[in-house]
Amino acid sequence: MFTHFNKIEKSVHYPEDRKLFIGLKPYVFIVIGIVFLATIGVAWVQYLVYGLPNDPSSALLSTAEVSVKGFPLWLILCHWVNFFFLVILIRSGLSILFDHPRLYFNEGCKPGSEWLKFTPVKVPKDKLWTAKDDARYISPLVGLPGYRHTVGIARGWHFIHVPFFVLNGVVFVVLLFAGDQRQRIVPTSWQIIPDTWSVFVHYATFNLPIEPNGFYHYNALQQLSYFGVIFILAPLAMLTGLCMSPAIENRFHWLPKLFGNRQGARSVHFLVMLSYAAFIVVHVSMVAITGLVRNMNHITLGTDNPTDYTGLYIGAVIILFTFAFFVHAHWVSWKRPRWVQRNGSLINENLWRFTINKLKPKPYFKKEDITPFFWPNGKLPTSEKWKNLAANNFKDYKLKVAGSVENPVELSLDDLKKLGSEQNITMHHCIQGWSGVAEWGGIPIKALVDLVKPHSSVTTVAFYSFGEGLYGGIYYDTHTLDNCLKPGSILAWEMNYETLSEVYGAPLRLRVENQLGYKMVKWIERIEFVESHETIGKGYGGKNEDDEYFDLIANT
Ligand SMILES: Nc1nc2c(c(=O)[nH]1)N[C@H]1C(S)=C(S)[C@@H](COP(=O)(O)O)O[C@H]1N2
Ligand SMILES: [Mo]
Question: How far apart are the C-alpha atoms of 36 and 46, rounded to whole Å?
Fold first, then answer.
C-alpha cells in the first residue's frame, strides 16, 4: 500500500499514532453557545411566545412579472468551476494546517495558548520538541495529499489553484454586474434583514418556509447567504491569505492587524474554510430537499424542467470528474511530486518574483512585541566538528565565504563583529504556519558582499549548515543576491539580546525577512556565491526544495 514511501519517508509521513484529536479551549464552547442561543435560541423564543412570523416568501410565488429568469451559461460555468477549486483549496488547506495543527489569536504561538488544536501532544518542557516533531497526520481521504508533514506538496496544490480561483471570482463578479443577474443576489433594500430573520425562524423551528422557485426568486435567507459567500467569505479568504505572507506582512504591517495579527488572520482563514464547508453542506442539502431534479436542471442546463433527469446526470458527471481528479492528484503527489513543485513555481514564482518579492521589509516591531515563546525547528547538528566548536564556545569557528568572488575570506566571530552589526526585531514566518517575534543581532550580509566582491555573474548566495535535513544530507538553502541585500538581511549571532543559543542556530544563522523560515539556515558553516542555484544539491535551491518540494522563492 505504501509503495510510494521508502522507509525514512514512511516513518515521517505515516507515523504510528494517527489518531485524530480535536481540542477546543473552554471559552470557545462559551462563544459557540452564545452564538447558538443568539440565533436558534432566540428563534425558538419568538416562535413559542409570538408564533411563526409571516413568511415573506409568499410574495415571491408569482413569477409572471419576474424580469431575470434562469441562469446564463457563464454563471453555470463559474458556479461549477468555483465548486471544483473550492474543494481543492479546502482539502490542500487542511493538509497544510495539520503541519502545525494549532490555531491561535496571539502572534507568539505559545503552546497552550491555542484556541483550537488537532493534536493531543502537550509540548514537553524537559526536551527539545520542534515544530516539525509537532506535525500531525491527516488522512488522505480528507487532506490533499494528506499523511504527515507533506506541507510542500499540499502548498503546491493550494497555490497552483489560488490564482484561478481568484480569476474565476473576478469573471463572475464582473459578469454579474455587467448584466441583470446581480438583481438575484445583491439585496437592494434593508428589508432583506427582517425577511431573512423570518425565514430563519421557520427553518430553525422546523417549519419549512414557502419555497419560491429558484429559477425566478431566492428566498431572503438564501439570497443573503449567496451574497455572503460571494462578497464576504471570498474576499476574507483572499485577504487573510495575503496576511500570512512574510513579504506582505513585513511591508504592510497594518494588514494582519485587521485580524489582530498574523495568527488571527490564519485563524480567520480557517474559519472562512469552515464557513464554506458548512455552506456547501447546507446548500447541497437544500438543493436535494427542495426539488433535486428541477434544481439540477437550473444549475447545469439553465432550464426549469421538473422531470428531465439530464441536469442530475450532468451534476453527477461533474462530481465524478472531481473525484477522478483527486484520485489522479494523489497519484501525482507521490509519483510525480516534482510536477506539482514545477507547476507551482511556474505560476507563483513568476507571479511573486516581480511583485511582492521586490517589497522591502520595514522595521516595525518593538521590544515589547518580542514573544515569550519561539518554536524551535530543525535537527541540531550531530557532526563532531560542530560539537567540538560548540564545546569551546565557537572560539575556533571560522566562517568560510567563497565561490565566484574576488576576495574569498575566512572569518572568526570576532572578525565578523568588527565588520559591522545591526539589531532588528522581526516576525518569523514558518511554512508550517506558526510565527514568533524576536530580536536578531548580527552582520548585514551587505557588509560581507562588499568585502568579498562577488563577480558580476553572481545571482545567488548559498548558505550551508553544519546540520542535516530531515531525510539526511547537509542542510542548505539559497537566496537571490537581491534578497540578501534587503533591509534586515543579516547573519545573526544574537537572539533577544543574548548570544545565539545552540538550539536556535549557534554560532550563526540567517535572517532574510521577506522569506519563510526554512530559507533561514541555522548553524551556518560556510557561504558560497554562485551563478545559479541549479548547480547545487539536487538543483532546486535548497534542502527542503530538493527533498520536500518547497518553493525556491518563499514569499507566501
Ligand atoms: N540547518 C537548518 N536550518 C534550519 C532548519 C533546519 O532544519 N536545519 N529549519 C528551518 C526552519 S523550517 C525554520 S522555521 C527555522 C526555525 O528557526 P528557529 O528554530 O529559530 O525557530 O529554521 C530554519 N533553518
Ligand atoms: Mo519552518
Answer: 15
Give the containing element (helix H, strand E) for 351.
Answer: helix 350-353
Q: Which atom of ligand 1 is nearest to the CA of 376?
A: 19
Per the CB < 8 A criterion, the answer to whether 530 and 539 are in contact is no
Backbone angles phi, psi at 548, to 5 degrees: -125, 10
Instruction: State the Cα angle at 296 between 292 and 300, rounded to 5°.
Output: 175
Name 400's bridge partners: 410, 526
Q: Which residues have CB atoms below 5 A from the ion given as ligand 2?
A: 377, 430-431, 517-518
Per residue in 358-401, pLDDT (tens digit) is 999 999 999 999 999 999 999 999 999 999 999 999 999 999 99
Residue owning grid cell 490555531 = 103
The number of beta carbons lying within 10 Å of the beta carbon of residue 4 is 16
What are the Cα distances from residue 516, in Å, to 42, 169, 182, 208, 451? 46, 28, 41, 50, 27
Question: pLDDT tens across 418-468, in order?
Answer: 999 999 999 999 999 999 999 999 999 999 999 999 999 999 999 999 999
Residue identifier of the C-alpha nearest atom 9 of ligand 1: 378
Is the pLDDT reported for residue 64 higher than 90? no
CB 204 within 8 Å of CB 236? no
What is the third-level CATH fold of 361-548? Sulfite Oxidase; Chain A, domain 2 (3.90.420)
d(CA 199, CA 222): 9
In this structure, what DSSP letter does residue 40 have?
I
Which helix (H) or strand (E) is 460 found in, with range? strand 460-468
CB-based pocket (< 6 A), ligand 1: 374-379, 430, 465, 467, 475, 504, 517-518, 520-523
